[in-house]
């Protein structure tokens, strides 16, 4: 792992890992809220029970957080996972009414927490492109 990537991976990985661990312990009311919020943007998740959805989301966050924190996981792979995850979060921002001002990408007060997930997309893309770029520049062995 390049030392320059360490802050990106450590801080982001720890945050996402903690989020996943927290969701594993979600009570039924919390699971209902997480599921309800997600299904308003992604209705295909309505077929899952709230507890099932929240456990699957938790497992995905734990796996992604662990991948970001594990030095042996290539930057491109960790970046691809983070890019996909953050794209899903930004989908919530774009699809849920009231998150951004009408006719604009500028967030409303309610949308600011989701709009901030754009930073995760930037980090994911940075890890992905730097990891792929590093592979291209390495001499064939």
**Helix/strand order:** HHHHHH
Task: Enumerate the spans where pLDDT stays under 50 for 5 or more consecutive residues.
Answer: 136-141
Taking the alpha carbons of the first and last residues, their distance comes to 19 Å
User: How is the main sheet built?
Assistant: none
The protein's oligomeric status is single chain
Number of strands: 0
Strand content: under 5%
Structural class: mainly alpha
Shape: globular
Query: What is the overall pLDDT average?
Result: 93
Helix content: 55-70%
Our Rg estimate from Cα atoms comes to: 17 Å
Helix count equals 6
Q: How would you describe this structure to a colleague?
A:
With 141 residues, the chain is mostly helical. Helix 1 runs antiparallel to helix 3, helix 2 packs across helix 3 and helix 4 packs antiparallel against helix 6.
